[in-house]
Amino acid sequence: MIILEKISQMQHFSNNLRKEGKKIGLVPTMGYLHEGHISLIKRARELCDFVITTIFVNPTQFAPNEDFGSYPRNFERDVELAKNAGCDLIFAPHTEEMYSTGFHTKTCISNISEPFEGEFRPTHFDGVALIVAKLFNSTLPDLAVFGQKDYQQTLVIKTLVSDLNFPIDIIIAPTIREKNGLARSSRNKYLSPMEFENASIIYKALAEGKEVIEKGEADRKIINAYMLKKLRELSGIKVQYCASANADNLSQPAIFLAGERIVLLIACHLGKTRLIDNIVLTIPFQLRIEN
Ligand code: AMP
To answer: DSSP states of 67-122 as a string?
Structure first.
């Protein structure tokens, strides 16, 4: 496994790969790898000749009251897991390397960043867009793989790539879940065993939304109410949003159209841990006939 820390070394390395005609796949992560990250690395492995995983806990996407300082880290273990999944190189710059003093460029992606996560983490996507642009320019990939787990983030990144003409294909890989339905996340480490079990309510609420939609419900507020009712079965859960929206632009019409691709989105706190999840589905063209 090759491990690089300097941007100039990384660019030099990638330029040489490109000269050899190698297709480079990138998987950006904040480390503390789990099965979700591993699935992205494996996807990149299938699609590319050379796979780069970046490990960088990006300070600019955390607000001052968030968990940047305590975010879980285990570099040695990450290297081993990434290697076993088929990664060729880890790019793990230090904070000073990525953010040298005197950094003035802002990347603010309007509209798509504003609802949902944007409402509760107003500076988050500016930080995400900035670091992803910097990682693209450092690793020079042909393709980058992101997880559907962070659904709104995938839309932000697609907008960034399209607006700034990055010649990079964006691949979205499905969410990997625990046996109880909870989406894998580095932050699951914060959950007590009891909270871990209780957290399955999030996926159950999403499934509830899916079920009413499949039965023919297209009224957004009614769909949301079904999901919220399910979440409220767990006392003490603090819901930030429990919503449904158009999957391409996150618009929230009163009634969804037949055939419209939509996303169901939840963000909540269990104890001190903030969890997000989503599922994507299509509004059916006709009512399902129940036997
Ligand atoms: P993070 O390290 O949390 O910043 O995540 C790095 C990448 O892994 C992002 O593209 C995430 O969307 C993706 N990811 C995180 N959790 C999962 C999961 N459970 N399934 C699939 N991808 C995931």
So the answer is: STTT----HHHHHHHHHHHT--EEE---HHHHS-SS-------TTTTSSTHHHHST
